[in-house]
Every structure is written in structure tokens, then in C-alpha cells.
């Protein structure tokens, strides 16, 4: 079990702007983990990057090491956009993220899949050790419990469906022509939501047309809507005639320019075209907002929809909070047991070395060749002595861990583990070393 502590940093939809999120978004999650692991004294790393958050969790020898690594990782944005947390708050926040309590859409389902994918990416990059293995798998377990045991994910459950509801406030979706740009997970959610809302025609534009074809086939089978797939190059012809455009790609540059969109006078009560930009970085060029006939919404503009959902799910959220409290306590107990077990293992390994030496010495005094049965008798007696002698200290060490008596475990390691270096820091849970409410080293506190 790692003797380090977890430190986390994040830029989210709550703490930063869309542009700030784009500035800190890594090229890939596994590459970001690999980068963090190059920092001296960083033992483990986990990075979660979505359109609404970039979060990094590191395990280091102490919080100063972790904060230094995170400061470099988030160097692309102002400190005010960054939230850092020490061990306990970092672990609790990760559980809240997987449960959907930190999402733009309270309780949305997409995030738990993203947490799982980030776990696989971090594991592929050798970033998952014993401490983050326990933390992330616990978070996934909490996310599953939240969705199976409460109503936290009833109603609007994704940004794709939130986008559809926001558009419906501006125009009548029944009979509308809709365009979804991007066939990734967010694009799939938006396409299905628009089709279910009664649009007359759905066009999916994607860089890889085969992916768009697959989505179109699925949506057609599910809803019967008329749908077709086109390449991104077709935006010049298909975007202008769409009543609704939802853009959700992973492009580094805008894919929808002003020339793609409706350029009328907007003399009617409704806009000629409604565009929702779910991209991060932005998929719609900023100049498009100047078009009088086009109404452009971005992630920040979905807040009104998310507020409605938040009110509807308030009771369920309280139930999820109770689940998180219990599972967080279990996670802390798991860490305590593991650290006590490491001290116990060191104690037994030390005793085993002594036992083997003394057994060999005793057998050397026998006259003649020692038989196998004689050796078994001596070794059995030695094992019995070791087990009886170590049973009371084993019980005491486990009780010490349960009672947060880390000085006892620290002393045991000094006595029985010849490689244990007391100068590396007290062998204790992070709250015993740093305090339960560690200072935030960069940017804002956890009260965002």
C-alpha cells in the first residue's frame, strides 16, 4: 500500500470558462498521466478530461509535491480558475463526480462512463497504483449505486438532451430540420434526443462518415426519423438549411464558420436558426453570434435547464450524499487496514527471517543426518512460537489503525522493516499529517 497522499486539481464548468477549459485540456488522458508521472516523487496519477472538466489526481510523498506537480500541469490558465484539494477532499470530490453531483446536468449518466475510460487510460499509462486503484474503483461503485438506488438520473440526463430542451424554448422542433455535427458520444446523445423530440429530418455530419452512418442507422431504427450521414465537407450545403444545429466534435478549431449559418434578417418572432455549441474547445466560430437570424448557445447557456433538473432531483441528491458519506468512510477504513497490514507484514517477514536462521542453527546440532520428519517437527514448533508471539501485536496494530493511532504503526515499521526510512514522513493517513482540511495550494478552494 502506498504511503503517499492524494492531491487533486481541477478546472471545471463551475470554476472556469469554456476557453479556460480548452486551454488545460490535454491531448489525451493517458498522455497527461504519463506527463505527471515524470515529476519526481509522483507515484500515481489519474486524469479525467471531459467537455466540462479537467481533473488531475496525483499520489506523492506529501501535498507539497502534489501541488507542485499540479501547478505545472495547469500552468495554461489563471490560478483563479483552478481548484486544488488535499487528500480527504480530493477523494470525496471524486466520489461526487462519479455520482453525477458535480455535473452540469445533476445526476447525468455520461460521467460514470467517462470515469471508467479515464481509469483504463491511467492504467494503460501505469498511473494506477494501490491508492488510486481503491479510490477510482470506489468512485465507480458509488456512481453505480447512485443510479440504481436513487432517482438521481431521471429526466434530463445528458447535455445532449439539455441542448434539445434549450432549443425547444426557441423554436418548434416538430417538423424541423436538424443537423448534428460530430458522431462521438455527445453527438450521439444529441441526435437521439432531437429525433425523440419529433424533428422531421436529421443530418449527422462527421469527419469519418462510417461513424455517422452507424449512428444514423441506430437512430432510424429507434425512432423512424428520416436521417442521413454526410462528411464535414458537406457543411457548406447542409448547415444553412438546418433549423437546429448541435455541434459536438473534438476539433481543436471551430468547424462551423459564419458562412455556414443562416444569414437572414430575423424579422419574425422566432430565430431563423438555433445553434448549440457543445464543443470544448468551441465548435462554432465567435463571429457567428453576430448573425441577426441565428441564436447561438454554448455550455454556459444551458444553466437554466440544469437548474430545473437540479430542483427536480434535490431529494435524490440527498440520498446520494448519504451513500457517498458511507462509502467514503469505507474507503478510509480500507486505507487504514491496508497500512496496518503493511506493518503486520513487515513484522512477520522479520520474524520469518529470524525463525529460519534459528531453525537451521538448531538442526545443525543434531547428531547425524536430520530426517525430514525431524525437520518438520522443529519447523512446526518454530511456526507455532512465532504465531503465538505475534498474535497480540497483530491485534494491537489493527486496533491502532482503527483508532488512528499511527504512531504505533510507525514504531512497528521502524522496529521490523529494515528498509523503512522515518525521514520519508510519518506513516500515517494524510489527515493525521496535514489536517483534514489541507490548504489549497493553487487558485480557489473547494467552495466553488
Automatic annotation (TrEMBL):
Annotated ranges, domain Quinate/shikimate 5-dehydrogenase/glutamyl-tRNA reductase: 172-305
Q: Where is the active site?
A: 51
- Positions contributing to substrate binding: 50-53, 103, 108-110, 114
Q: Which residues form the Tetrapyrrole biosynthesis glutamyl-tRNA reductase dimerisation domain?
A: 319-417
Pfam families attached here? GlutR_dimer, GlutR_N, Shikimate_DH
Q: Which residues form a coiled coil?
A: none
Query: What quaternary arrangement does the UniProt entry report?
Result: Homodimer.
Free-text function comment from the UniProt entry? Catalyzes the NADPH-dependent reduction of glutamyl-tRNA(Glu) to glutamate 1-semialdehyde (GSA).
Give the matching PANTHER family: GLUTAMYL-TRNA REDUCTASE
Q: What is this protein called?
A: Glutamyl-tRNA reductase
Which taxonomic lineage is given here?
Answer: Archaea, Methanobacteriati, Methanobacteriota, Stenosarchaea group, Halobacteria
User: What gene is behind this protein?
Assistant: hemA
Amino acid at each position: 500500500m502506498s504511503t503517499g497522499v492524494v492531491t487533486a486539481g481541477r478546472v471545471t464548468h463551475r470554476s472556469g470558462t469554456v476557453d479556460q477549459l480548452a486551454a488545460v485540456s490535454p491531448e489525451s488522458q493517458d498522455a497527461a498521466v504519463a506527463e505527471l508521472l515524470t515529476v519526481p516523487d509522483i507515484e500515481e496519477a489519474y486524469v479525467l478530461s471531459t467537455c466540462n472538466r479537467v481533473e488531475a489526481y496525483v499520489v506523492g510523498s506529501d501535498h507539497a509535491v502534489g501541488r507542485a506537480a499540479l501547478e505545472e500541469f495547469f500552468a495554461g490558465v489563471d490560478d483563479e480558475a483552478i481548484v486544488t484539494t488535499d487528500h480527504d477532499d480530493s477523494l470525496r470530490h471524486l466520489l461526487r463526480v462519479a455520482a453525477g453531483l458535480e455535473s452540469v446536468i445533476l445526476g447525468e449518466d455520461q460521467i460514470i462512463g467517462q470515469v471508467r475510460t479515464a481509469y483504463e487510460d491511467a492504467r494503460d499509462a501505469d498511473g494506477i497504483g494501490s491508492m488510486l486503484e481503491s479510490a477510482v474503483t470506489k468512485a465507480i461503485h458509488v456512481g453505480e449505486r447512485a443510479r440504481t438506488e436513487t432517482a438521481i438520473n431521471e429526466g434530463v440526463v445528458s447535455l445532449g438532451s439539455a441542448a434539445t430542451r434549450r432549443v425547444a424554448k426557441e423554436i418548434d422542433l416538430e417538423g424541423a430540420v436538424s443537423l448534428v455535427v460530430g458522431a462521438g458520444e455527445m453527438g450521439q446523445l444529441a441526435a437521439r434526443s432531437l429525433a425523440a423530440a419529433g424533428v422531421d429530418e436529421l443530418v449527422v455530419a462527421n469527419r469519418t462518415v462510417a461513424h455517422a452512418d452507424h449512428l444514423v442507422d441506430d437512430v432510424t431504427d429507434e425512432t423512424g426519423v428520416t436521417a442521413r450521414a454526410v462528411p464535414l465537407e458537406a457543411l457548406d450545403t447542409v448547415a444553412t438549411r438546418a433549423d437546429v444545429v448541435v455541434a459536438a466534435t473534438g476539433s481543436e478549431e471551430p468547424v462551423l464558420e459564419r458562412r455556414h449559418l443562416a444569414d437572414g434578417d430575423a424579422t419574425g418572432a422566432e430565430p431563423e436558426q438555433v445553434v448549440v455549441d457543445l464543443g470544448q474547445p468551441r465548435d462554432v466560430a465567435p463571429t457567428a453570434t453576430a448573425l441577426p437570424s441565428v441564436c447561438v448557445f454554448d455550455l454556459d447557456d444551458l444553466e437554466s435547464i440544469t437548474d430545473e433538473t437540479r430542483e427536480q432531483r434535490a431529494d435524490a441528491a440527498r440520498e446520494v450524499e448519504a451513500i457517498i458519506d458511507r462509502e467514503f468512510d469505507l474507503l478510509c477504513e480500507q486505507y487504514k487496514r491496508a497500512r496496518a497490514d503493511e506493518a503486520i507484514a513487515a513484522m512477520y517477514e522479520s520474524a520469518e527471517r529470524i525463525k529460519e536462521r534459528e531453525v537451521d542453527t538448531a538442526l545443525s546440532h543434531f547428531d547425524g543426518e536430520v530426517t525430514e520428519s525431524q525437520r518438520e517437527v522443529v519447523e512446526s514448533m518454530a511456526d507455532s512460537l512465532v504465531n503465538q508471539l505475534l498474535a497480540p501485536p497483530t491485534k494491537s496494530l489493527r486496533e491502532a489503525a482503527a483508532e488512528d493511532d499511527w504512531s504505533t504503526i510507525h514504531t512497528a515499521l521502524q522496529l521490523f522493516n529494515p528498509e523503512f526510512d522515518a525521514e520519508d514522513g510519518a506513516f500515517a493517513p494524510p489527515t493525521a499529517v496535514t489536517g483534514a482540511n489541507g490548504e489549497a495550494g493553487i487558485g480557489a478552494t473547494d467552495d466553488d
